[in-house]
Amino acid sequence: MDFLRGPICIGVYTWREGIRKRSYIGFLILSLLVIFGASFITSFMNQRMVGEAQTDIDLKLIKDICVTTISIFGMLITVFISASMVPNEMENKVVYSVLSKPLNRFQYLLGKFMGIQAIILLNLLLMGGLFFVALYLRQGIPPTLLLWSILLTYFEFLIVSAFTFAISCTSTSAVLPTIAGLFIYITCNLTQYLKDVIERAGQTGEKLDELIGGLARVLYNVLPNLQYFSLKTQIVNSPPNDPPADVLIPNLIIYGLVYAMVGFILAYWVFRRKEL
Amino acid sequence: MSSVIETHGLTKVYEGARRGQDVHALTDLNLSVNPGEIFAYLGPNGSGKTTTIKMLLGLIFPTSGSIRIMGSDRIYSSAVKREIGYLPEGAYYPDFLRGEEILKFYGKLYGLTGAKLNRRVDEVMEQVGMGHARKRMMRGYSKGMRQRIGLAQALISDPQLLILDEPTTGLDPIARKEIRDILSVLRDQGKTLLISSHELLEVELISDRVGILFEGVLQTLGTIDELLTDRDLNIEVRGIDDSALARLAEKGMVKEDKVGDVVTLRVAESLSAYDALELCKAEKLTLVRVAPRRESLEDVFVRVVGAAEAKRSNA
């Protein structure tokens, strides 16, 4: 318990600092407005256009907009928060006074990471909660599928956060890790396409093609596939209280945790002998 | 107890991008800071002061050499860190926290909790004269108050060793005096203080020993009395004209100042007080005052750094 006292203290401090960041507040307000606005606009349309088919289209539109909003704004908040916490503390020298206390670098990073996760979770709960209420009011059925989706989205963000955090530990400014975080998110959402590259590269038999195929194979096996965490199609097209189909939630949670652990270990490996 | 801080051959080299571009931030530093003393660590910007402090705190790592703190070479262990309080230069404290919340945050990092933590926060707030403003948000603090909070966070664990980087820089004279008084009280309580500063007057007033660093090399080390020599003499006279001034200057008595008709002559070290007075007598000058000329720490600093610069230029 003594070992965790320092990290918890730093985590709480990080959380309190993070939720006051302008970028966080800005993205959060914007996302809540979009979710709220999407529900409101289609409700307004419903009063004029009668018919079950039209209602279904509206509902799909709401779900599509809201799931995309949670995904995009959640990712932006995740990347900005994960990229900035450590570099900011190096810049304003808080890290000097904190690490001069009886606290090792692992504990410091653990505390920062825990605080970042608390911010990401709060953000997801706010956005997901609003979406949940909007869907429930509209359909009168608790959209439990959405809760599964929020859970999986968190583990998707956990992976992005861990690798962005690792890159932020190499940097004294938040700019590079932010760009890297966005790159990680985009690349890891395209992992599925690497499979196509592997298949196509094997067909020509040329040296360069084989080389590209080999590289694609390595990337496909190493990079996390964030598409696994997406329940968007099912949320948009299925009844709201359906169980998640074609996904093994416990496996995905373990998948997310393993990649997050790798990201955190990388962060510590970079930071443990970093000259501050 | 032996030295609180002891370094042997402490060296820090930052590797450059190319061969030959390495920066020698600190070279072969042998230093010992004794228990209960205020040790002033001086030097121009970029001389290696902060590098030394960062190595003492484990923020950067030595290229070679050794460090012992409180007799232990496990300087990054919790046991040693528990005995160190550190005030970084220009540290930031978040505006959304109250003064006492900052102290509680740092106190918890030392493992203080509950009533013990609250009692310690009370004590330290009173110690740095911030008891009245403890509930105020940081954004409402003046620069001097922020510096006191910085000092308070360094004191929260009641450490034996305090390392203070520029504790009075940027403060007004009253705030500087108040911080100085706090530091003197801490020394009287038996704490050891290592102060890195550019405020030479402040340092001269409170320090026991001084080390002057230039380009990563310790140039001089000694007590204030050892460094501030009384070798020169000032003689104040009346009734001196330009020709007499020129004759005296040739013999080692140089005009230093003039207030009204009283001229102050600085007597060179090579000239005895007796000879200087005889020369004044020969010029038929009216003697107003004879006083030893005490160097200030600033004089010593300029002399030492100037000599080091000249040596480097000649090399």
Number of domains of chain B: 2
Shape field of chain B: globular
The first-to-last residue Cα distance of chain A is 28 Å
Structural class of chain B: alpha/beta
Q: At the first level of CATH, what is the class of the largest domain in chain B?
A: Alpha Beta
Number of helices of chain A: 11
Order of helices and strands of chain A: HHHHHHHHHHH
The CATH topology of the largest domain in chain B is given as Rossmann fold
Residue-averaged pLDDT of chain A:
87
Biggest interface and its residues per chain? A-B, 24 and 35 residues
Runs of chain A in which pLDDT lies below 50 for 5 or more consecutive residues are: none
Please tally the β strands of chain A and state the result. Answer: 0
- Strand residue percentage of chain B: 25-35%
What quaternary form is this? heterodimer
Main sheet: strands, sense, barrel of chain A = none
CATH 4th-level superfamily of the largest domain in chain B: P-loop containing nucleotide triphosphate hydrolases
Compact description:
With 276 residues, chain A is mainly α.
What does this structure look like?
The complex is a heterodimer of chains A (276) and B (315). By secondary structure, chain A is an all-alpha fold. Chain A is 80% helix and 0% strand. In chain A, helix 3 (52-91) runs parallel beside helix 6, helix 5 packs antiparallel against helix 11 and helix 6 crosses helix 7. The longest helix of chain A is centred in the first third of the chain and has 40 residues, at 52-91. The mean pLDDT of chain A is 87. Chain B is of the alpha/beta class and 315 residues long. Chain B has two domains: 34-57 and 76-227, P-loop containing nucleotide triphosphate hydrolases (Rossmann fold, 3-Layer(aba) Sandwich), CATH 3.40.50; 232-293, 2-Layer Sandwich (Alpha-Beta Plaits), CATH 3.30.70. Classes of the chains: A mainly alpha (276), B alpha/beta (315). Chains A and B meet through helix 1 and helix 4 of A and helix 2, strand 5, helix 3 and helix 5 of B.
